[in-house]
Write a structure and sequence with these properties.
Number of helices: 3
Shape: globular
Radius of gyration: 15 Å
Order of helices and strands: HEEEHH
Distance between the termini: 19 Å
Length: 113
């Protein structure tokens, strides 16, 4: 198996781990293009003026980083605070880190089995 095929296989396993989160999100999707490979699409919320994001997923680490960032934004929104996770209180930062650590453990377990 070539290095490119291995990366694609690893990426597909990580996509499987986050499949429910991605499918449940109104603002994220992952599509496959023969030309570009896997691409993460991020749309702004309806009440936002932000631009859409398009991220080429060249490796699983990029996907995990993007999903974790979105989880942090989701957490901040659920708590009724700014969408900018850099403005989180110390308690919120600890909660975000705990949530990410929990997800990372699940990803590790699923990807190593």
């Amino acid at each position: 198996m070539s290095s490119l095929e291995e990366k694609k296989s690893e990426l597909e396993r990580v996509l499987g781990v986050f499949q429910n989160y991605i499918e449940g999100s109104e603002l994220l999707d992952v599509v496959y293009s023969k030309k570009f490979g896997y691409v993460l699409l991020g749309l702004p919320a309806a009440d936002s003026i932000d631009d859409s994001d398009v991220t080429r997923l060249e490796d699983p680490e990029t996907l995990v980083k993007e999903i974790y960032q979105n989880l942090a934004y989701d957490f901040m929104e659920q708590e009724g605070h700014s969408e900018d996770y850099t403005e989180a209180t110390n308690l919120e930062k600890r909660a975000i880190i705990w949530r990410m650590y929990s997800k990372q453990s699940q990803v590790f377990l699923l990807c190593t089995t």
